[in-house]
Amino acid sequence: MKLFSILVSLSISLSSQAQFKSGFNATEAKDMIQICNSFLYLELYGSDREILPKGYQKVYTSPVLGMDNRFQIYTKGKIGVIHFRGSTDKKQSWMENIHSTIIPAIGKIEIKGKDFNYKLAKDTIAGVHAGYSLGMAYLHEELLHQIKLLNHKGIFNIYLTGHSQGGSLAILTRAYLGYLPHHKLNKKNQFKVYVFAQPMVGNIEFVNEYNRLYSDKGMSYSLLNKEDIVPTMPVSFNDTTFWKSHLGKVLSKEEKLDKSVMFKEGMTILFQKKLQRINEKFGRSVEKQIEKELGEITMPNPKKEINYAQIGNVKWIPAPEYPLELKDSTILTNEEFLATHPRDENGVFLDKRVYKKTTIAQNHKSYNYYTAILKVYFPDEYERVEPKLFGL
């Protein structure tokens, strides 16, 4: 009997420390995008209770750190979540986005005389986004402190999540945590990443290494809407097989050539050295503005490149659909218009041009990512949720 009790206790102890399961899980993705709507709901309604997933308890919200970044900590049993806030309307937040020079993935950032030594990849050719790396530099001490507090509670399985800028910070944080020594981060920690609508964070060498360590092992996922332009930023182009790729589509009858993509990539390749010099000069200007706002910083010298690449394990979700709302409701009283514009049995005009279209901003909003995920993976919940589309 005593032996049985010991075995049961041991089983419970081991199960509480069980590692995350690899692979995409739609419920995990839904929970994370709901959490990613917390700051939006707090800003608009003063409460995020309605949007947060059941079972998760918010235990900490950081102060504003550095470039108007904040993060939240959630727990659910022995599971933890670190949620990074996305962009705000503050100047510092947008300077973080637009400081898109590529810096080495191994280096040092100095903030007010204090060094932040970072390693985000082994590959010495790997490069990362300067602005998001600086954002992480301001956050890292408080992040590590909060992870240790989770560990003290026996929580070692931790999701990293964020929408937009927050998603980019989550990816770089995962890379950063992966190279920390034992005395800074308990090796029992397991991290799984779900990010949404995030801009790109590094060059192809960084992405290849990140994918090999995390994406290919089913521990990092990116959910994107093809109509959302933010995940296409900063500059990204096919600089290795451009002519082979596009010429192949020209010759192939099966593959459709996207002339706009070919033109954009071709012009970028043609003028990439000039664009790189402009980007580097612009980056120095941004750093000076950051220093005026936040104090002295010293960044690593930028790499002589501008080409970003998209992190792997992308799950494409549909663009949000604008509920059928007429651009001009007065057409319903215009007999001449009604006579020349037929409607179906439900009263819907066959000419969809009379209805409002989803805007660029709507394609990017975190709430609309939430409803799109419901539509794909949880159609019953999608039918019940209101509104279907959020924001102007």
Short note summarizing the structure:
With 392 residues, the chain is an alpha/beta fold. It has 14 helices and 12 strands. It starts with a helix and ends in an 8-residue tail after the last helix.
Tag the structure with descriptive keywords:
14 helices; 2 domains; alpha/beta; 392 residues; Rossmann fold; 7-stranded mixed sheet
* Percent range for β-strand residues: 15-25%
- Walk across the major sheet and give the strand order: 1-2-3-8-9-10-12
**Biggest sheet architecture:** 7 strands, mixed
Order of helices and strands: HHHEEEHEEEEHEHEHEHHHEEHHHH
Show unreliable segments: 8-16, 241-247
CATH architectural category of the largest domain = 3-Layer(aba) Sandwich
Number of strands: 12
Give an overview in words.
The structure is a single chain. The strands form three sheets. A seven-stranded mixed β-sheet has the order 1-2-3-8-9-10-12, with helices on both faces. A three-stranded antiparallel β-sheet has the order 6-5-11. β5 and β6 (114-119) form a beta hairpin. The protein folds into two domains: 20-321 and 360-384, 3-Layer(aba) Sandwich (Rossmann fold); 323-356, no CATH class. The chain has helices at 2-16, 26-35, 38-45, 91-98, 130-152, 165-177, 204-215, 242-251, 259-270, 272-294, 335-340, 360-364, 366-377, 379-384, and strands spanning 57-61, 71-76, 79-84, 102-104, 106-111, 114-119, 127-129, 157-163, 190-196, 220-225, 297-298, 314-317. Helix content is 42%, strand content 16%. The N and C termini lie far apart (65 Å). With 392 residues, it is an alpha/beta fold. Residues 8-16 and 241-247 have low confidence and may be disordered.
